[in-house]
Design a protein that fits this description.
- The chain is 31% helix and 35% strand.
- It is an alpha/beta fold.
- It has a domain of 104 residues: Rossmann fold.
- Strands 1, 2, 3, 4, 5, 6, 7 and 8 form an eight-stranded mixed β-sheet that branches.
- Helix 4 crosses helix 7.
- The protein is globular and about 55 Å long.
Length: 211
């Protein structure tokens, strides 16, 4: 992100959540507009902003798929696991502007989804999301500057810790601690290590430029 930033540049954060990342990036941009659909998340970002006395960020409630900003408004647009409509991003970027994204990979938490028999994007782990997105981005008119996928493991000390995590994320939107108890116990038994209960993660990262 820092490599494509600039004190004279205006950036858009798509799906900013509580805004902590954009607050950390504020010294590197002239202005950042951070959008999200969650009023609660935006309020949290505004709270952090006031506490840190940061003045060059504006938190706005907006739909990332159809914003009201004019064509070629932003020098940089970025998204960290947020929604991204490539055609809308292309419209909003200035010529030679950059789009940076960190996306959840198709193999993310595959093992636990297989045991539960369901989950976010269940069964789609044989199609490369990075390859698909690169093709879509090129077709729209972006130049691929960088692309890479990353695999890593998270560890949870106890089954209760893993349960708490699953209750707060959309891996299983219908997760129920009581109904899913047997599946969670099975996963814990299979993937408990000396470090904790292993949960494999998958992320894809790319940086593209508007031609």
């Amino acid at each position: 992100m820092i490599k494509v930033s600039g004190k004279n540049k205006v950036a858009l954060d798509i799906g900013c959540a509580d805004g902590k990342f954009s607050l950390s990036m504020s010294p590197y941009f002239k202005k950042i507009i951070a959008i999200d659909l969650s009023r609660g998340m935006l309020d949290a970002g505004i709270k952090w902003q006031k506490e840190q006395r940061i003045k060059n960020i504006s938190f706005k409630k907006a739909d990332a798929y159809k914003t009201k900003y004019k064509d070629r408004t932003f020098d940089v647009i970025y998204s960290r696991r947020g929604p991204s409509k490539f055609s809308e991003i292309f419209r909003l970027l200035k010529n030679k502007g950059y789009f940076v994204e960190i996306k959840i990979g198709e193999k993310d938490t595959q093992k636990i989804k297989e045991i539960f028999g369901r989950g976010q994007d269940f069964g789609e782990w044989n199609e490369s999301r990075l390859k698909k997105h690169k093709e879509e981005l090129r077709d729209i008119g972006f130049k691929i500057i960088f692309s890479q996928e990353y695999f890593y493991d998270e560890y949870y000390k106890t089954e209760k810790d893993l349960k708490t995590f699953l209750e707060g994320v959309p891996i299983f939107e219908d997760f129920n601690a009581r109904k899913d108890k047997k599946c969670l116990e099975k996963y814990t038994k299979l993937y408990k290590t000396k470090k904790g209960i292993e949960l494999p993660r998958h992320r894809i990262v790319y940086v593209v430029q508007k031609r």
